[in-house]
Amino acid sequence: MNRFISTSEAARLDAADSLASLRAEFHLPTLDGEEVIYLTGNSLGLQPRGVESALKTELESWRTYGVEAHFHGPNPWMPYHERLTDSLARLAGAKPSEVVAMGSLTGNIHTLLASFYHPTTERPLLMCEAKAFPSDQYALASQAQWHAHGELFEIRGTDPEGAPTPDEVLKAIAEHGRRGATLLLGGVHYFTGRAYPIAEITAAAQAQGMLVGWDLAHAMGNVPLKLHDWGVDFAAWCSYKYLNSSPGGVAGLYVHERHHGPETFRLAGWWGHDKASRFKMPPEFVPERSAESWQWSNAPVLGMAAQRAALDVFDRADLDAYRAKSLAMTDVLLGLLDHVAAQTGQEIKVLTPREPEHRGSQVSVQFVGRDRRFFDYLVSRGVYADWREPGTVRMAVAPLYSSYRDLARLEVLLAESLTQ
Known about the structure:
Largest sheet: 7 strands, mixed
Order of helices and strands: HEEEEEHHEHEHEHEHEHEEHHEEHEEEH
Helix content: 25-40%
CATH class of the largest domain: Alpha Beta
Strand content: 5-15%
Shape: globular
Strand order of the largest sheet: 6-12-11-10-9-7-8
CATH topology of the largest domain: Aspartate Aminotransferase, domain 2
CATH architecture of the largest domain: 3-Layer(aba) Sandwich
Structural class: alpha/beta
């Protein structure tokens, strides 16, 4: 078979990769004694090797100190969430005071919309993209239904998948933004892998008088973010995808510092109360002057311990090199898909934009006319990707642990699967 990327070329690229050593920090699943080709970090990241030790440390504190572990032991629990703050701020492009690890993604979206979606008769719209991830669609629809003047407005695209292009988003903002209260979009579209220009869209919506938030589930730990400099009002993310924090791991949120004052409404919980007087249990809520004021409860320590271990690996990665590797590997992935299509005669429709600035680490493709049987063959040979009807496969490289050897192996197995 004529190859797009040979084993020797893959070895050369891996040898030149400044992040290659970090692969050893993760547990790679194996099949028949060989590491699988893991392309589902956009769904669940791999387990960092440091997680086991991190959990053992906190379990030992629990066993040794009981409730006093909130104040004693290697990592006292009371301020435990603060151990994650600086690393998350670096990845979000935010000030440490603007981020906090807490909750779940959908819960955090509801929490933030309680603060940043207040529809009126003049501005009823909660704007989002069509074909958003279902949990977002359900959450936003319920928010619109909850408010007397609420109205959900989905920005629809013209392509067959329905998700809008950046130009279509900007056009909708120009036409309907004056009736918009809040805009909430996904930073990277979960299905197509399209990365939206967050800075440009944020500025356009704010110019129309809207508050702007972003669901960063597929963007955090994937594409470069500068939330503070871009003036984003609020954002939320999960951590179990590219951040490798554990299944259903502790999520996070961002709130720009201009909203930290007591004049901003938030659904209050005791862990968001001013630290200096929190344990005096006063009857009135006095918010912390930071994103921490959106917290409801004390830290889920075991989940945060796993996330801290994952962030330890991220802290060792140069983020410019991380982005460069992501783009280089997706270039190779796109190239080998084109090559396999030409070699096998299989029509492969690429859904992800090919322009580097419009994609993250995920490449989504449709294998036209194929049912799931060829995909099941890939899985049986150790290719772990994500199948979506009809005939769509989402594949995501993860620069912390993906290798060019993975892609060289993928090319061979993909060609095999299409000729079965």
